[in-house]
Amino acid sequence: MSGISLTFGGDPVFSDLDLVVQPGDRVALVGRNGSGKSTLMKVMAGLVEPDRGDTVIPPGKSVGYMEQDPSMEGFATLGDYASSGLEPGELYKVERAGEGLKFDPSRAIETASGGERRRAALAKLMAEAPDLMLLDEPTNHLDIEAIAWLERELGATRAAFVLISHDRAFLRALTRATLWIDRGAVRRHEQGFEAFETWRDKVWDEEDQQRHKLNRLIKSEARWAVEGISARRKRNQGRVRALQALRAERASQIKRQGAAAMALESSPKSGRKVIEAKGLSKTFGDQQIVRNFDLMAQRGDRVAFVGPNGVGKTTLLKMLLGQEAPDEGSVTLGTNLEVAVFDQARAQLDPEMSLWDSLTGDPEMRVSGKADQIMVGGQPKHVVGYLKEFLFDEGQARAAVKSLSGGEKARLLLAKLMAKSSNLLVLDEPTNDLDVETLDLLQELLDDYDGTVLLVSHDRDFLDRVATTTIAMEGNGRATVYAGGWSDYIAQRGDVVGDKEEKTKTSKSKIKQDTKPKTGLSFSEKHRLEKLPAEIARLEAEIAKLEELMSDPALFTREPVKFQKATEALVERHEKLSNSEEEWLMLEEKAEGA
What we know:
Blueprint: E1 2-8, E2 11-17, E3 26-31, H1 37-45, E4 52-54, E5 63-66, H2 78-83, H3 91-101, H4 114-128, E6 132-136, H5 144-156, E7 160-164, H6 168-174, E8 177-182, E9 185-189, H7 196-230, H8 237-252, E10 273-284, E11 287-298, E12 302-306, H9 313-320, E13 328-333, E14 339-342, H10 355-360, E15 366-367, E16 370-376, E17 379-382, H11 383-389, H12 406-419, E18 424-428, H13 436-448, E19 452-456, H14 460-466, E20 469-475, E21 478-483, H15 486-493, H16 500-514, H17 523-550, H18 555-558, H19 560-593
C-alpha cells in the first residue's frame, strides 16, 4: 500500500499511509475502538476504495477477508456458502473446518444465528487458504475449544495473516509483528503483541517529552516577543514568524485519546450470602444441563462460567438468578440484591436509534422534564457530557447505533450499564470487540467493585485477571467448581478439553509444579499481591501530601471548606491504607504458609 488517504465524513482516517505485508507475516493489527482497524483491513481486501493511493497485490498471490457480517444471499445452507468457489475435491476442507469451528454445514441460512454465520465465513476462508488472510475478530462467538483449534491451524499455516482480536492470549501465541493505528498513523514494530504495550508506552513517553520541549520553546520565544514590545525595540520579524510556526505545529498535533471515564455505581451492600444453590438438576429434551450442582456465592466473589457453546452456561446462569426453574434442587438469593446485565447479543441496543435516544429513552435513566439529561448514579448529567466520558464525540450523539463499530457498541452498552447502581453484575462476553486500554480499565473496575460478578467468557487472559471462582461446564450434566481463573482451572484439572497439544504441555508443567512448594494463592490472588505494594506506596504519597497541606496553621480559618475536605480525604486514605496493608499481610502469610 502506498500513499493511501481516506476520509469519512470530513475527518481523515488515514493520510499518505505506506504499508507492506510480507509473505509469511504474522501481524497483530491493534488500535483504539473506532481508530480504523476494520477500515484498513477492508482497504487491504479491496472492499473499500481509498481517496488516493495504490494497493498492489503481486501476480499469482491471493488475499482473503473474513467479514464480520457476511452476506449469504443466494445460498440455502451455511455449507453451500462456505464451499462456494471450491473445487469438488476440496470440499473436505469445509467439513474439517466445520468440525473445528463447530458449525453445522446443513443449517439453513434463514435459521442461522449471527455467530453461526461468522463461523461459516471463517471456515470458508480457512478452506480457501489464500496467501494472505485478513481476520477481523475471528474468535468472537467461538468457545475455548474452537479458539484452541483455530490457534493450532494458524500456528501451522505457511500463509501470511493480519489479525484483529481482543483476545490477548490468542494474539500473544500467534503474532510476530504489530501494526498500531494511532490518530491516523500506522506504525510497524517487528515484535508480536507480547511486546506491544511496552513499545506503545515508550512511543507515548517520547511524544510527551517532545511536546514538553516544544512548550518550553514556545514559552521562551513568547517571553522574548513580549519583552521586545515592552522595551519598544524593533522586533526580529523572522523570529516572530518562527514563534507563529511553533504555535501552529503545537495546534496541529492530534491529542491522544484518553481512557474512558468508566465507573461502576455500587448500590448499598447486598447480604453476605448472594446465591446459594443446592442439588440443582436441569434437562432440556435429551440434553442434561446440570446434575446435582451446588454453589455458594458470597459478596465480592467473581464467578466465571466456561465451557463449549451450547453446553448450557446461560441456562445455569438464569437458574442461579431465579429466572429459570430447576427440575430438582433449590436456589436461595441473598437480600437487597440489585442486578445489572451486560448482554452479549447487544439486545438492549436498537440499531436504528441514535446514541442520544438510546440513553434518554431508557426508563431507568430518564430525567423527568429534561430531554437532554440522564440519571447517572442518582444524579442528573447532560447526555453529551456522559457520552464523552465513554470516548464518543459530540457528532456521534445523534448518529444511529448501527453506524458504530463493534467496540463502540460495547462501550455504549457499558455506558448504559454503569449509569445504574448495582451490587450483582452479570457479564455475558463483555470483552468482545473492546480495545486493550478499555479492557484494562474494565478489569480494574471489576477489581474495585464492591459487589458480586457472574461472568461468561471465552477470553482466557480476562478470566485469569478477573475470576476468583471458575465453573467448568463439560457436558452431560457435569459442572465443576474450581478456585481461581482459567489457568488455575487447567492446573487443577491437568488438561485442556479438546486440545491434545495443550494437554501435553499442561501435564508436563504440572509435574514440574508438583516438585516445587505450592504458593496456595489463586492466579487472581497472586495478581493482587503483585499490585498491592504500588497501591500502598500511592496511598502513602497521598497521605503525605494531605498532611503537608494541613500543616498550615492558618488553613482552617482561611479556607474552612478546603480544610474539611482535606480532613475527610485524609481519614479515607488512612482507612484504605490500613485495609491494603492488612490484605497484603494476609496474602503474604497465605503464600508463605503454603
